[in-house]
Amino acid sequence: MSLINVIGLGYIGLPTALMFAKNGVEVVGTDLNEKLVTSLLEGQLTFEEDGMVELFRIAQKNGIIFSTKYQKTDIYIVAVPTPYIKSNKKLDPQYVIQAIDQILDVCDKGAIIIIESTISPGAIDKYVRPTIEKKDVVIGKDIHLVHAPERIIPGNMIYELEYNARTIGADDISIAKRVKTLYSKFCKAEIVLTDIVSAEMSKVVENTYRDINIAFANELAKICRKDNMNVYEIIRIANKHPRVNILQPGPGVGGHCISVDPWFLVGDYPDLANLILEARKINDSMPVHVLDRIKQLMKEYNEIDISKIGIYGLSYKENVDDTRESPTLQLLDKMKDNLFLGVKVYDPFIREPMVENQFMNFDEFLNEIEILVIMTAHDHIKSKFDLIENKIILDTRNIFNCSEVHKL
Ligand code: SAJ
Questions:
Q1: Ligand 1 atom closest to Cα of 218?
Q2: How would you write 214-278 as a 3-class SS string?
C-alpha cells in the first residue's frame, strides 16, 4: 500500500490520519498551520476526544509523520474547512481549491484525490474540476476524484470511525473499489459506492434532516411553554410510536455540521428550500428563547441582579471542547445587545479564557451566582446536583428531573 497524505489535521483529518496509521497504512498528515504541526510533532494533541491519546501513541509508534508540506504520492485525503459565506449562504470552497492546487503541484500521475470535507451538492463539478482542468490535467487519467464524506460525531469519533457506514462517490467504479479497500483497513461497517453528486447530496441531506427534526422539537418546546405542557414528556410518549422519532429541544444547534450544511441548500436553492430555511431560523432563534426564559425567571424571583446570572457550558454540545457555532456564544452576544452585563460563565472543558467573566473554577463560579443556566449537558454537572440545588436552575438540556428545576 502506498503512502497516503492527509491534508488538514483538524477535527476530521487528524483522527482519520491516526486511524489509518494504526491500521498499518503509511501516513503523512499535512497542515499549513505550523503551530499545529509543531505541537503534533512534539507529541501534543490539539483537541480532546475520547480514545485519541491512545490512538495517537499507536500511530506515533507506527511511524506517522506530520508536516507543513504536501507529499509526492498517489493518494490524498482532503479534510480542510468548508465554511459557508455568511452573505449568500453558499459554500466557501477556497480551502478545498487551495488544497487541490497544491496537490497538483506535487502528486504522482494517476493519483486519487479523496475529498472528505462536507461540500455542497455539485461543488466538485463547480469548483474542483475547473481547478484541475485549468492546469491541463486530465480527470480520469492523470488524476481521479472521489468524495468520501465523513460522518463521525465529536465525542465518539474513534468508535464511529470504525463502526459508521460510509459513502464513497467516484466517477469510476474501479477507483471507488480501490478507495473502499483503503477505508476497509479500519471501517468495519458497510461502505456504499455511488457517484460523486449523490455522495455530496446525501451527506448534506443527512445533516439537514437532523436540523429539521431538532427544529420541530424546538418549535414544540415553544408551543408547550405557552400553555404549560411538558414537551419532554410529550416527545417521550410520541416516540413510543414505532414510526416516530423526534429529537430533543435545546438552546440551539451548534457545531460545524448541522448548523452549517443546511445553509448550502438554502444558498443554492433559495426558491425551493423553504422548510430547510424555516428550520434554520427556528434553531437560530433558540438562544433568544433562552434569554426570554431568563428574563421571566428574573421577574418571577423578584428582579435578581443580572450579575448573579451564571451560564454553564460554552461548547456546542456535551463533553467536548469545541465551541464552533455554539448556542452559548450566541446567547452571550444577545445578552450584550440587551445590556445584560456582568454575566458569569463557566465550562469545565474550556481552560483558556475566551469570553468576559469566565471562571476557571466551578466553586468560585457558583459562589458568584443565583441563577444557573445550563447550556451544555456535560457529565461534569450531572453529578453535581447537591452543589447547585440552592440555585435557581434553568436547565435547557433537560438533565435534572425535578419540579424545582426550570426548563426551556
Ligand atoms: N442537538 C439538539 N437536540 C438533539 C440533538 C442535537 O439540540 O436532539 C444539538 C446539539 O446540542 C448540538 C447540535 O444539535 O448543538 C448538533 O449536535 P449533534 O450531536 O447532532 O451533531 P454534531 O454536529 O456534533 O455532529 C454531526 C453528526 N451527526 C449526527 O447525525 C449525530 C455526525 O455524524 C456528522 O459527521 C457531523 O455532524 C458532520 O461532520 O457532519
A1: 7
A2: HHHHHHHHHHHHHCCCCHHHHHHHHCCCCCCCCCCCCCCCCCCCCCCHHHHHHHHCCCCCHHHHH
Atom of ligand 1 nearest to the CA of 326: 15
Ligand 1: residues within 6 Å at CB?
118, 150-154, 207, 210, 214, 247-248, 250, 253-255, 257-258, 316-317
C-alpha 363/C-alpha 42 separation (Å) is 34
Task: For residue 203, indicate whether it is catalytic.
Answer: yes
Distance CA 147, CA 231 (A): 40
Residues 247, 253, 255, 259, Cα dihedral to 10°: 100
402 belongs to the catalytic site:
no
Say which of 187, 257, 317, 407 is annotated catalytic. 257
Neighbouring C-beta atoms of residue 155, cutoff 10 Å = 16
CB 304 within 8 A of CB 392: yes
* Residue nearest ligand 1's atom 3 by CA: 248
Distance 258 CA to ligand 1 centre (A): 6
The three-class DSSP label of residue 367 is: helix
Q: How many CB atoms lie within 10 A of CB 344?
A: 22
Per-residue pLDDT of the chain (408 residues; tens, 9 = 90+): 689 999 999 999 999 999 999 999 999 999 999 999 999 999 999 888 899 999 999 999 999 999 999 999 999 999 999 988 889 878 999 999 999 999 999 999 999 999 999 899 999 999 999 999 999 999 999 999 999 999 998 889 999 999 999 999 999 999 999 999 999 999 999 999 999 999 999 999 999 999 999 999 999 999 999 999 999 999 999 999 999 999 999 999 999 899 999 999 999 999 999 999 999 999 999 999 999 999 999 999 987 899 999 999 999 999 999 999 999 999 999 999 998 999 999 999 999 999 999 999 999 999 999 999 999 999 999 999 999 999 999 999 999 998 899 999
User: Which atom of ligand 1 is nearest the CA belonging to 258?
Assistant: 23
**Residues 155/181, Cβ–Cβ less than 8 Å:** no
Nearest residue (by CA) to ligand 1, atom 27, is 153
